Amino acid sequence: MPLTLNVGISKKVGLPDFGSVGATCNVSVELDAALLSREPDAFQQHVRRAYAACSQAVNDELARQTAPGASGPPGNASPTPAVATNGNGNGTAGSTQAKPASNVAGHAQHTNGNGNSNGSHGVSQKQMGYISQLARQIRGLGVRKLDSLTGTMFGKPLAGLSSLDASALIDQLKAIKDGNVSLDAALNGAPS
Predict the structure, then answer these.
(1) Which of the residues 5, 94, 133, 152 could staple to 106 if both were Cys, CB 3.0 to 4.6 A apart?
(2) Distance (Å, rounded) from C-alpha 1 to C-alpha 114?
(3) How far apart are CA 167 and CA 173, in angstroms?
């Protein structure tokens, strides 16, 4: 009896002015169902390979989309992006399934609808409030250490951040809060 393994990964990165670009990859592979009971290590190897292929495809697509001068997909190399400019940055990326290749399923670019995406705007009150909320939830992070973190990350104090900088800081604070990055490593500029 065949077993269908479905693996997917979706990733989104921030752009200036609350914009973002995302990529999603889903793969389906048919395997022998006996792998689960007779060769669980071989099954796990198939899962890891499918996941790695998806992850690489998503990372490649995001790198292409965020590269300087990137204006969209060249030719027919990948699907046409779904673009959402609904005024609040919310939207969804399209997705399709590949079998068993690791093709990027889709990507979407979101903007905040103001037509300005150079990241020159200062940190918003909403961002500042969320940064403060996250900082309070991280043990050992106070106002002085928060300024030290922004100095390490951006070479400027919290008050001098752009909205794009604030978005990156929020991502870093979430990673620290979730335990994916240590506070000490972030304060010392270690890559995350």
Answers:
(1) 94
(2) 54
(3) 10
Phi and psi at 30, nearest 5°, equal -90, 130
pLDDT, tens digit (0-9, with 9 covering 90-100), for 141-178? 877 788 889 888 888 888 888 888 888 899 889 988 88
The one-letter amino acid at 53: A
Burial grade of 4 (CB within 10 A; 0-12, 13-18, 19 or more): exposed
- Average confidence score pLDDT of the chain: 73
Is the peptide bond between 100 and the residue preceding it cis, with omega within 30 degrees of 0?
yes
Residue 176: exposed, middle, or buried by beta-carbon count in 10 A (0-12, 13-18, 19+)? Answer: buried
Q: Within 10 A of 100 (CB to CB), how many other CB atoms are there?
A: 15
List, in sequence order, every residue forming a beta bridge with 14; answer none if it has no partner. 20
